[in-house]
Amino acid sequence: MSALSSSWLTRLSGGQAKQKLLAFASLIVLVIVFTVLKPDAFMTQDNIIGILQSTTVIGVLAIASTFIIITSGIDLSVGVLMTFCSVMAGVFMVNLGMPMALGIVCAIGMGALMGCVSGLAITKLKVPPFIATLGMMMLLKGSSLIITQTRPIYFNDVEGFDQIALGSLLGDLLPDLPIPNGVLIMFAVAVVCAVVLNKTALGRYTFALGSNEEAVRLSGVNVDRWKTIVYTFSGGICGIAGLLIASRLNSAQPALGQGYELDAIAAVVIGGTSLSGGSGTVLGTIIGAFIMSVLINGLRILSVAQEWQMVLTGLIIILAVYTDNLRRSKQ
Questions:
Q1: 2, 25, 236, 310: which one has the fewest Cβ atoms less than 10 Å from its Cβ?
Q2: How far is 179 from 105, CA to CA, in rounded Å?
Q3: Does residue 281 lie in a domain region?
Q4: Number of domains forming the structure of the chain
C-alpha cells in the first residue's frame, strides 16, 4: 500500500473514531437530560427495558442498512422486507406446520432471497438503487397483504416463539434487570456483522465498492457479484428483524413495516456511516439506534407531540449529515 493510501486510511479511521465518540457522548447527554427532567419516569426498570426492546428491531434493520449505505447504495425496502419475512414465518410455522427451527431458517432465507432480487435488479437491470428498492418495497407490501388476505397471522400455537424476543436467558443472573432475548440477539448480530465487515472479503469489498467502484471494477473484481452478495446478506439480516418483531407481537402484522426504513437510515447516519459510501461501523450504528430510541422515548415521556418528535428527529439527521460532510472535507 502506498504512503498516500496509508495516510488516507489513518485519517479516515481517526475520523470514524471521533464520530463514534461524538455519537456516544450525545447518547450520554440525552440520558442525563431526560433523567433530570423526568427522574421518576425515565430511569425506571420498565422504561429501560422498554428502550432496550424498542431498539432491537431498529438496531438490526440499521445493521442491514449499514452494509448497503457503505457501498454508497440505499435500500428503502428494509422495513417492508422485515414485515414480509414475519409473514412468511407465519406461513411456514402456522399455515404449513413447520417446526419452529426450520421456519426460522426459511424466513431468514426468504429475506436473503428478496435482497438478492434487489441486488440483481440494481446490477443486471441497471436500475438505480433508490428506484429498485422503492419498487421492491411496494412489491413486498402488496405481497404481504395478499398472502395474509390483510389479516394478521398469530403464533399462539407455536410453542416458545414469543420467547425469541420476550424471554430472558439472563433473568436468573440479572433478576433486577431481566434483559430480553431480543436485545441479546441484536448484540449477537452486531458482533457477527462487525467481524464480517472488518475481517472478511465481503467486508473489504463492501468498503471498496463505496470508496471507488470503478477502480474496483478495473482491478478485475466482479463488482456485480459482490454488490448482489451485499444486498443478499442485508436481506438475511432483515429476516432476523422480522422474526424479532413477530415474536414481540406474537403475530405477523402485514400492514406493519413502512416507515421503519427511515428510522434505520437515521440510526446509520447518526452513527457516523457516510451516505457517500466507503466508511462506517456497526458499533456506530448501534449507538445511533440507541440515540433514536432514547430520544423518542424521552420525548414521549415529556408528552411532546408526535409531529414535534418528527421535526426534532429530522433536524438531528440533517445535523448528522452536515457533521459527516465537514469531517470528510477535512480529510
A1: 2
A2: 24
A3: no
A4: 1
Q: Grid coordinates representing 242?
A: 422480522
User: Which neighbouring-strand residues pair with 251?
Assistant: 154
Distance separating alpha carbons of residues 245 and 89, to the nearest angstrom: 11
What's the alpha-carbon Rg for the chain, to the nearest Å?
20
Instruction: Tell me whether residue 283 is in a domain.
Output: no
- Helix, strand and coil in the chain, % to nearest 5: 75, 0, 25
Global confidence as pTM = 0.91
Q: Which residues are CB-neighbours of 98 under 8 A, at least 6 positions away?
A: 92, 106
**CA angle centred on 246, ends 240 and 248, rounded to 5°:** 105
Determine the structural domain holding residue 88 and report its residue range. Answer: 51-258
As a whole number of angstroms, the distance between CA 219 and CA 112 comes to 28
- Report residue 67 as a C-alpha cell: 452494509
pLDDT digits (tens, 9 = 90+) for 280-304: 999 999 999 999 999 989 999 998 8
pLDDT block averages, 10 residues each, the chain of length 331: 40 61 88 91 89 93 97 95 97 95 97 97 95 96 95 94 89 74 95 96 95 92 96 97 96 90 90 88 94 91 87 82 74 62
